[in-house]
Automatic annotation (TrEMBL):
This is DNA-binding protein. Keywords: DNA-binding. GO terms for molecular function: DNA binding. The keyword tRNA processing does not apply. The keyword Zinc does not apply. It comes from the Bacteria. It holds the Pfam family Phage_AlpA.
Amino acid sequence: MRLIKLKEVMAKTSLGHSSIYKFIAEGTFPKQVSLGAKSVAWVESEVDDWIMERIGERGEADVVT
């Protein structure tokens, strides 16, 4: 298991800081893990799973007409 910081989450998802935190608040993006005072990270596999779900939704959207 690997933890990644916000910059890497942003690079992997192509989302900005505010969008990531908005999706977390909506319950649609993996929550961050507290590493201590003012330090958080994300579980990389959870972020990867979220990306794969978005890709899967794209395929489903193409089928539904």
